[in-house]
Design brief:
The chain is built from three helices and three strands. The protein is α+β, with helices and mostly antiparallel strands and 86 residues long. It has a three-stranded antiparallel sheet, with no helix packed on it.
């Protein structure tokens, strides 16, 4: 028997627009994705629920598949930022 492995890919989501005049659904979606400010980024996987959320807020975010190098750099930058702020 062959097993089909459902591989999850990492997606980088970046907020590119402000939400001052955004519809309520888009603002709520951005809150659920933990995107509060322009140019902030989050990592999500490619589950259908997340893809649907991205489509809901597509006027305010951009996204794409992340390479392992990008994920490592984002995580390292976050760790460096937290260390320097302490």
């Amino acid at each position: 028997m062959s097993k089909k492995v459902d591989e999850r890919k990492c997606i980088v989501v970046v907020q590119v627009r402000g939400t001052v005049s955004a519809q309520r659904e888009a603002r709520e979606t951005l809150d659920l994705l933990h995107l509060g400010n322009t140019n902030h980024a989050v990592l999500v996987d490619n589950r259908p629920a997340f893809v649907g959320m991205l489509r809901q807020a597509q006027a305010y975010v951009t996204w794409g598949e992340a390479s392992p190098e990008i994920v490592a750099k984002m995580l390292q930058t976050r760790v460096d930022f937290r260390v320097t702020r302490s």
